[in-house]
Design brief:
With 457 residues, the protein is of the alpha/beta class. It contains 20 helices and ten strands. It has a six-stranded mixed β-sheet with strand order 5-10-9-6-7-8.
Length: 457
């Protein structure tokens, strides 16, 4: 059949099949996209149920739910997905990639943005509610049957509801022993949850505290727990990490200035699932003492003075910074590599950093198999500190250092030329990191933990 013949057959089928473009395309054997193109050019809009009206069996589903059938059974009976049935019960409406929720919240899953829109309020007595709630008609029936002397069980059977539901309604909504259905309906409508203004919008003092800590790159979780420590008797100075994230990420909840979002470690203004970082591929092959031979007291962090190390490298490997993290206290030391990161340059910077520590904090160093540690034997001879090497493709074996390097990327994002940052700059960054409370330290700071070690030994 020619193209024109297919088109004519398609439009005949479209009329016969009540405007369903997909069904008509299937009948004549045309690609659905081609069929949609024909209808657009002809100025015709499909009349199938793909967005042009309610699901043909939704009324049947709602009748089954009103009759007491569970959601799973009702959705299976009418042939819809359980998630779709849940949306129907909750009053969720779909608009392309967006979903609108009762109360005015609209989420666009294509952009990740959430907005609050003004929704015309329905009169309390006429509000459309979920089938599991009593309606005004139900309450009128309860009042009529109650006046006629019907028992709780009889009223429940008439409404298809348990007698306990009727008893709770009468106990909660009766005034001076009289049940008035319209007053009960208004009282129920007034008691329903309503959107409330976010805490960081209404509480100026709390908002300013959160802004201040975000400006020095504290995480929402650090802020939340430190509030408890700093204001133990002030319940108003409490905010959950999620509330802070919501204020930063969700539109129309801008209790915090939007520019503060730049203080988040990811630098993102949208949430997205965590992804595993790329594993390092450059490895060092030489005579090494592997991490499997590391003494157990190092592994369980029981003894302080054992360090994990690595480099963060600038673009083109033209610049780098040495990072050391003490395993027990998470204290960070940073070393400046202005000219490169050859084995000799790294050896000299590590030797100087370790030389600033007291003897009892010079236990060991754990590193990956990068070629910058080719001079590890010379380093051990100069400092008396043994070096243990991780297994290939195992960055978690020096997890404290990996975490610290992630934190440092807040100060030195990837592709940043690290050469301009001198020793004083790195010292300032290290002081900020060591001054942050850490969850793993029960919200103490690394500086506090190291101070305790130095004053007790």
């Amino acid at each position: 059949m020619s193209s024109n013949g297919l088109k004519e057959a398609f439009f005949e089928a479209l009329d016969r099949l009540d405007g369903s473009i997909t069904a008509a395309a299937c009948e004549v054997g045309v690609n659905r996209n081609t069929a949609y193109g024909w209808t657009r050019k002809a100025g015709i809009r499909g009349r199938g149920r793909g967005g042009a009206g309610p699901h043909p069996r939704r009324a049947e589903y709602e009748h089954l739910r009103a009759g007491g059938m569970p959601r799973r059974g009702a959705s299976a009976h009418v042939g819809v997905n359980l998630r779709t049935a849940e949306d129907w019960d909750r009053g969720v409406k779909k608009h392309g990639t967006a979903r609108s929720y009762p109360g005015g919240r609209r989420v666009d899953y294509n952009t990740g943005m959430t907005t609050l829109v003004e929704v015309p309020a329905l009169p309390a007595l006429e509000a459309v509610v979920d089938p599991r709630y009593l309606t005004l008609t139900d309450r009128e029936t309860i009042a009529d049957l109650r006046r006629s002397g019907a028992s709780l069980r009889a009223i429940g059977r008439a409404l298809g509801r348990p007698a306990s539901t009727i008893k709770r309604e009468l106990d909660a909504r009766s005034e001076e022993g009289r049940y008035q259905p319209y007053a009960a309906q208004r009282a129920w409508a007034a008691s329903r949850p309503r959107p409330k203004t976010p805490k960081l919008v209404t509480d100026v003092r709390l908002r300013e505290y959160v802004q201040e800590k975000l400006s020095v790159r504290w995480s929402p979780e650090q802020i939340s727990h430190t509030l408890i420590k700093e204001f133990p008797d002030d319940e108003s100075m409490r905010v959950s990490p999620e509330t802070i994230y919501q204020a930063l990420y969700v539109q129309a909840r801008g209790g915090l200035r939007r520019e503060v979002a730049a203080a988040l470690r990811t630098g993102r203004t949208r949430r997205k699932p965590h992804k595993h970082p790329d594993q390092r591929t450059s490895r060092f092959v030489d005579e090494m003492v592997m991490i499997s031979e590391r003494p157990p007291e190092i592994e369980d962090r029981a003894v302080p003075g054992h360090w994990e190390g690595d480099l963060i490298v600038g673009p083109g490997s033209a610049s780098a910074i040495v990072t050391l993290v003490e395993r027990t206290t998470r204290y960070v030391l940073l070393g400046h590599l202005p000219g490169g990161h050859t084995a000799e340059e790294v050896r000299d910077v590590l030797t100087a950093l370790i030389g600033t520590l007291p003897e009892h904090l010079r236990g060991s160093l754990t590193w990956d198999q990068g070629t910058e540690m080719a001079a590890h034997k010379q380093f051990s001879i100069a400092t008396g500190v043994p070096v243990f090497f991780c297994d290939p493709h195992s960055p978690w074996q020096r997890g404290s250092n990996e975490n610290a390097n992630g934190l440092l990327r807040q100060y030195f994002p990837k592709s940043t030329d690290l050469r301009p940052y001198g020793t004083e700059d790195l010292e300032h960054v290290a002081q900020e990191l060591n001054g942050r409370p850490r969850k793993t330290l029960d919200w103490d700071t690394p500086a506090e933990r190291l101070r305790d070690l130095l004053t007790t030994n």
